[in-house]
From TrEMBL:
EC code(s) of this entry: 2.1.3.2
The protein's name: Aspartate carbamoyltransferase
Organism per entry: Pseudonocardia dioxanivorans (strain ATCC 55486 / DSM 44775 / JCM 13855 / CB1190)
A Gene Ontology cellular-component term: cytosol
Encoding gene (name): pyrB
Catalyses which reaction(s): carbamoyl phosphate + L-aspartate = N-carbamoyl-L-aspartate + phosphate + H(+)
Pfam families hit by this protein: OTCace, OTCace_N
Swiss-Prot/TrEMBL keywords: Pyrimidine biosynthesis, Transferase
Gene3D superfamilies in the record: Aspartate/ornithine carbamoyltransferase (3.40.50.1370)
Amino acid sequence: MKHLLTVTDLDAATATALLDTSDRLRQALLGREVRKLPTLRGRTVITMFYEDSTRTRVSFEIAGKWMSADTVNVSAKGSSVSKGESLRDTSLTLSAMGADCVIVRHPASGAAHRLAAWADKDRESTGTHTSIVNAGDGTHEHPTQALLDAATLRDRLGSVAGRRIGIVGDVLHSRVARSNVFLLATLGAEVVLIAPPTLLPVGVAEWPCRVSHEIDAELPGLDAVMMLRVQAERMTGGFFPSSREYAVAYGLSDARAAMLPEHGVVLHPGPMVRGMEIAPSVADSARAAILAQVRNGVHVRMAVLYHLLAGAPE
């Protein structure tokens, strides 16, 4: 694996290997007073975020440090990007400084793919190689989020294959939804997208999932439900009448959470808009695995760095 740009590059065996590596790394850290593994000592990992982030940026930074990599964070606001430097020149600069891996989040869909193409071209001319990890590109994909969600579902449900997973809300603007649909389907799950017609993307009929507009009809048959963040910052029109009406039609209230089977799991990629997308009592309930997603995010991202920089296990 040279880069991680999209979940569609992962077959079931590769995705399962990443999840298994994540489990092994988590076990290796259990009981350690100093959470450090020497696996990536001497490697340099750079996080380059053109959009705000807490969970993804920090968990990648922790993942690198727990594996003894030299981890550097670059934000667009504090770098030469704010002076007008192009993405191409920034990538060349970081590669010249010896970056073994660049983790990028960018508002433009396809930005990570462009970086990977430039990195591959540089490898041909200089012999050096920089791996690129897509930490979210526009409304396109967020592959490591899908992997950590799959890891959380494995922990809670025992397996992903054969499970029915509902994804509810702003699918149109959600890179998390797109990555989860394709990865969960690859791992053998049945995925149901539940959203108003205005929040579904063009071409969703070609995705490996079923589409529904009725959340109450779907909840009793779900093994897990993932509530999506309503991405108001990407909306330029009226996608629904009001926040209150959205909460009434698609929010996960206590009454709706009670419709899930007893083993049903509640997920949310965060940050949550409590009271609109999900009731505070549901977010803090025993069936919610939201903080488990955050914890698994560190170990999954450790696994991704391991497979990119240290090689897949035998």
